[in-house]
Specification:
By secondary structure, the protein is α+β, with helices and mostly antiparallel strands. It has one domain: Yope Regulator, Chain: A. It is built from two helices and six strands; from the N terminus they run αββββββα. Strands 1-2-3-4-6-5 form a six-stranded antiparallel beta sheet. A hairpin with a 4-residue loop joins strand 5 and strand 6.
């Protein structure tokens, strides 16, 4: 997983950043020039130990916090309350199979494009 984040995503201009949220010690987060922090939840990737290195939760946090999201997008984005920093973030969460790194990276990058377009189409400034 760390190889995916540190090497494969660099080709898309994404680099590791500090993103202090509750539970951040179990995450690797990347961003740069996009409206999201892409955060890889390493602690809760799988319900079964044998799958721990094949799946990973990937969270797309909007960089702006405490913004209004239209009702139409509330099935795509959910609220994440960061109790440590007293803020409300919006995130999209998905489970990504990381056995094939190239497919995982393509899936993540395509999701960034789709989410960005969706926000723009609904007039959400990010």
């Amino acid at each position: 997983m760390e190889f995916l984040v540190r090497n494969d995503l660099k080709g898309y201009g994404l680099k590791e950043v500090e993103f202090p949220i509750e539970g951040s010690e179990d995450r690797i987060t990347v961003s740069d020039g996009i409206p999201f922090y892409i955060s890889f939840d390493l602690a809760h990737a799988s319900d079964y130990k044998e799958d721990a290195y094949t799946w990973c939760y990937v969270d797309f946090f909007l960089k702006k916090n405490d913004i209004q999201v239209p009702d139409e997008l509330k099935r795509v984005f959910t609220r994440f309350i960061d109790h440590n920093n007293q803020r409300i973030l919006w995130r999209h969460r998905m489970l990504v199979r990381i056995i094939d790194m190239d497919r995982a990276v393509d899936y993540i990058i395509n999701t960034v494009s789709k989410l960005s377009k969706m926000l723009k189409d609904h007039g959400v400034e990010v």
